[in-house]
Amino acid sequence: MRKIKPMIDGLFFVSSSIFLGYLVLIAVYIIWTIGAGAMTWICLTGVAFVIGSALIVAENKADEAEEATDE
Fold first, then answer.
1. Could you read off the pLDDT of 35-65 as tens digits, one per residue?
2. In the predicted model, what is the mean pLDDT of residues 24-35?
3. CB burial readout 16-26, b (16+ within 10 A) else e
4. With 0-12 CB in 10 A as exposed, 13-18 as middle and 19+ as buried, what is 52?
5. pTM
6. What's the domain count of the chain?
7. Other beta carbons less than 10 A from residue 54's beta carbon
8. Among 4, 9, 51, 52, which residue's CB has the most CB atoms within a 10 Å radius?
């Protein structure tokens, strides 16, 4: 079980990063043309992952700072 939990956490981090990133990219999607090619979506997924990762890391750091002030 110890080996599986980090893998599950990693998969959750990746999927939630992409999901959060896509939420941020909704405005880009609305502006984008309907005929966007496959490379466009690959690039958007990469950008979404980066944005989502940054949001999750920022949230984790805020939680750590909050826990440090609670003690």
1. 566 667 777 778 888 888 888 888 888 777 7
2. 66
3. ebbebbbeebe
4. buried
5. 0.46
6. 1
7. 14
8. 52
